[in-house]
Amino acid sequence: MNHIIGAQTAAAVPAVKWLLVDEESAGQRLDNFLLRHLKGVPKTHVYRIIRSGEVRVNKGRASAETRVETGDQVRLPPVRISEKVAEKAAHPAPGREFPLLLEDDSLMAINKPAGVAVHGGSGVSFGVIEQLRQARPQAKLLELVHRLDRDTSGILLVAKKRSALKQLQDQFRERETGKTYLALVKGEWPAKLKVIDQPLHKFLLPNGERRVKVTTPEDPEGMRSITLVKVSKRLPGATLLEVTIKTGRTHQIRVHLSSQGHPIAGDDKYGDFDWNRQLQKPGTSPSLKRMFLHAWRLQFNHPVTAERVALQADLPPELKAYVDHVSPS
């Protein structure tokens, strides 16, 4: 069964919808503008209604490449969405606010807890961004600037303006940001090993799950990946590292550290599973029930003032308690 956007009920006469382009959307391509407003509608259908002339800008036909401007009136024909999408709209994510490190008119920086995905998808019905949007229905725009793995805690940037989103994403892409993580790894990390420059290759397991491996420079699918490592603290049987990434590849830190024989504590994909089980056992020390990877520090240029912003999110209590307990006196 399909539902119709713009109709009060499935039996009602479908209604045309008009959208007013605001300043934040000015300059966007028409196809991107529509895809943002028609969540859950297949891309092929969006392009079909543009080609057919059912979408109008200021009462005139327009192409997918047309740039919309402030004050433009965009006509949307009634479009059908699947039962699954309609169900999701009827039962949205529960609204949730997260600890704030910084917020102004352009952006917000939150301290993401471990165990929460940044967005819905791949078996997760909702994440941080969906919960934030539900908690702030008055917000015109909330978009993720970058991503963190579900089991990684720490600093996450969210843009509140499209101009800020583009500016910040450009900084991440051009490696103008400073991103440093805290990671606890197995064994004694060699003090001389300060740079890992190894290409990474993404692939899928037979069950469709995504994985990453270190590959050779000759691999056409390999992406150059650079990780800087500094020893922060030596612990019994483990090392606390400050890890700065110069490239933002999927699972980069986890794969790079594991490739050196020093997997991250609690990593259920690339870790030492026997060691993980030992860390999880309740005993005299606090057990470690999550991956020990935390986005600790982030530097970037503010998208409006261009001033350098330096943020820090201290270790969450469960990780700090573990380090404090096992630290040599």
Architecture overview:
The protein has helices at residues 30-37, 43-51, 83-90, 128-135, 162-173, 252-259, 273-280, 317-326; strands at 2-5, 17-20, 56-57, 60-61, 73-76, 79-82, 100-103, 107-112, 143-144, 153-159, 178-186, 195-197, 200-204, 210-214, 226-235, 238-245, 293-301, 308-312. The chain has 329 residues and is an alpha+beta fold.
Topology record:
Elements: E1 2-5, E2 17-20, H1 30-37, H2 43-51, E3 56-57, E4 60-61, E5 73-76, E6 79-82, H3 83-90, E7 100-103, E8 107-112, H4 128-135, E9 143-144, E10 153-159, H5 162-173, E11 178-186, E12 195-197, E13 200-204, E14 210-214, E15 226-235, E16 238-245, H6 252-259, H7 273-280, E17 293-301, E18 308-312, H8 317-326
Parallel strand pairs: 10-17
Antiparallel strand pairs: 1-6, 2-5, 3-4, 3-5, 7-8, 8-10, 9-10, 11-16, 11-17, 12-15, 13-14, 15-16, 17-18
